[in-house]
Amino acid sequence: xxxxxxxxxxxxxxxxxxxxxxxxxxxxxxxxxxxxxxxxxxxxxxxxxxxxxxxxxxxxxxxxxxxxxxxxxxxxxxxxxxxxxxxxxxxxxxxxxxxxxxxxxxxxxxxxxxxxxxxxxxxxxxxxxxxxxxxxxxxxxxxxxxxxxxxxxxxxxxxxxxxxxxxxxxxxxxxxxxxxxxxxxxxxxxxxxxxxxxxxxxxxxxxxxxxxxxxxxxxxxxxxxxxxxxxxxxxxxxxxxxxxxxxxxxxxxxxxxxxxxxxxxxxxxxxxxxxxxxxxxxxxxxxxxxxxxxxxxxxxxxxxxxxxxxxxxxxxxxxxxxxxxxxxxxxxxxxxxxxxxxxxxxxxxxxxxxxxxxxxxxxxxxxxxxxxxxxxxxxxxxxxxxxxxxxxxxxxxxxxxxxxxxxxxxxxxxxxxxxxxxxxxxxxxxxxxxxxxxxxxxxxxxxxxxxxxxxxxxxxxxxxxxxxxxxxxxxxxxxxxxxxxxxxxxxxxxxxxxxxxxxxxxxxxxxxxxxxxxxxxxxxxxxxx
Length: 529
Hints:
- The two termini are 40 Å apart.
- By secondary structure, this protein is an alpha+beta fold.
- Helices cover 29% and strands 20% of the residues.
- The protein contains 15 helices and 20 strands.
- The radius of gyration is 24 Å and the shape is globular.
- The strands form 6 sheets. Strands 13-17-12-16-14-15 form a 6-stranded mixed beta sheet.
- The longest helix has 17 residues, at 471-487.
- Strand 6 and strand 7 (154-159) form a beta hairpin.
- The chain has helices at 2-17, 51-57, 114-124, 166-171, 235-243, 257-266, 295-304, 307-313, 337-340, 349-362, 381-395, 408-417, 434-442, 456-466, 471-487; strands at 31-36, 65-67, 79-81, 84-89, 95-100, 144-149, 154-159, 197-203, 207-212, 226-231, 271-272, 275-285, 319-320, 371-378, 399-406, 422-427, 492-499, 502-503, 507-508, 526-527.
């Protein structure tokens, strides 16, 4: 017994003497080389709707709460404290109060307080005289009627109606807290956060370099000395850089199945971590401009796009069929396989195309008199490949689409101005919750509802499901809404991509989530070399 106690005491002493956070083998030091496939349009997460901003900028910030980076599936039960230490709901579900962490400072040494939380989210929800240039997630907070501080370390979000999903939205990687002493115009060009890393240098078209924050509030983090995001836009060049270990990992949304197959032959020792993400490839219509303001024409396109054939041809089988929300088991709210099978674009492809041509004939089109439209596409190999396949299918129903390639930064300006008719797009969903997806992507007043689909009847259902605390009843209504959006041709959803997350085995503790916006903080990542 004495020997056993002595051994236990010795272990406790060793653990106490070891650097905090290294008891299980984590190593400090090194700079992670991360391949980034596109420039961030700006450095403001609250302004942008693209992973090309969130991924390289999230390490500079913290949220009130965050999804546990070590849990692969994000869900309400995986939300953990960040700048908040704990939280509580009022009995009627209309007030959410956070107790805030003490002793936290921004990168310039100024203290973090409740004032910063109110400042940030008053701007984001449009309740401040100060504005962001864009506000793609403003409608997330439309139900927030006031944000009230109680001293420096308590803040309450007051809601107009119960909304249990508010916590899920605040946990998303797109919900960082900014300092009240930095105006929102500076958010686009600098990163003043409380996060584990600080921006040291950014050279557009070359790299973005974060270095370790020596005063981070979590004293045992981060493990890395820095993260260097290397811009490699062309796919083959990026794969070659990975194979040659010029970079340690691929961009979180870039390794699709064909890339994995290529990398396995180029770099046999590379590791792949598979996840199905909430984001999906889709066709955006401009539903407010002729000819796609006609729902019959949208139905014809919907029918002509064989989702199984797209997944097989473009994804090489590396995708999951679904409606608007990511289906189970990967997602929390999507349609079942039986429901998906009844949607337009499934079933007999020849019969679907025949029906589509019948609709086109009724609208006055034919092989001799096709509809000619421009199709906007991001100048990235995957999107161009997708557009090429889509153009071939449109031709079979007498639509001649002309591909027009644009850079990622240019694309979002085109979408914001609604200066398009058709766009091949990838829609990112920043939290796996229907409130996020419905209000941001399909609500009448949302900036990010690029198709401008607007149906007041369906909009009322968004609000109804949002207030439900019974998840089983909520799921039933959410699935009804999902089917309605697909059948209305709000967007043409092709499927949810499997991502294979290529990295060398020495990159440790980077756990892919189904929502790729929320695990980019990098504070837990370390290099075993």
